[in-house]
Amino acid sequence: MIKISLSNIGKLLIGIAFILLIVTEYEKYRLAQKEKDEIRQKIKLLAQTLKNTIKILDELYEKSPRSIQKEVKDAKNQLLEGLAAAVMDFPKGASVSIPQAQGRIEILSPQNDSQAGDRAFVEGTISGYNGKVWVVVHPVGTSAFWVQPNADITENGKWSVNVYLGRPGNIDIGKRFEIMAVANPAQEIRTGIILENWPEAGWRSQVINVVRK
Q: Where are the domains of the chain?
């Protein structure tokens, strides 16, 4: 006959209780992860919908008379603010290396490691190219590389554009953002597109780090 002491029974019960606790906590974690995955899928769907809507607004702007172009532009800006919220909720992705600068394109402002507001003014120069300059913003800690409104190049090679650094208000103050300017991208890009990495391009500036203020 196997004799089990009261102390061993107590240890056995504690062990069972501990296992049940682990199982319960794991189930909570699994359900929480499932909920997060569902939320992330909805965020991606929202981002795709907003991107498609921005494309339609761009086409409307080009075809509209000047009398209503401002209304179309205002509608686009409101959508971009909505897209900023979706971008900031993107999950953290794998570590991405910062590519080497390429071509004669440079960001002059803002300065590296400076502070900037939610609508930051970005300006720079480019030589040897007459097309459009695209600015890409990467909120550090997310997997989103967000293409901003394009900047036209002036005759002397200067360009500028206002970009979105997170959401309006105080919610993203203190968060870090990386900014790169590109020209002649290998694949077509448009305002509002969310990429998984820095785009391949013939001209690629240095990456500027800024902190939201």
A: 7-88, 105-212
Indicate if the pLDDT at residue 28 is higher than 90: no
Question: 105-212 maps to which CATH number?
Answer: 2.60.40.10
- Bridge partners of residue 208, in order along the sequence: 179
Q: What spatial distance separates the first Cα and last Cα of the chain, rounded to whole Å?
A: 74
H helix or E strand, kind and range, residue 44: helix 6-63
Cα(192)–Cα(5) distance, integer angstroms:
69
Sheet holding 119-126, edge to edge: 105-109, 119-126, 158-164
Element spanning 46, H or E: helix 6-63
The structure's pTM equals 0.74
Give the tokens for residue 26.
């794991």
Query: What helix, strand, coil percent values describe the chain, rounded to 5?
Result: 40, 30, 35
* Per-residue b or e along 171-197, where b marks 16 or more CB atoms closer than 10 Å to that residue's CB: ebeebebbbbbbbbbeeebebbbbbee
More confident residue, 75 or 106: 106
CA 82 vs CA 48, 76, 79, 190, 207: distances in Å? 12, 10, 5, 17, 25
Which pLDDT score is estimated for 119? 94
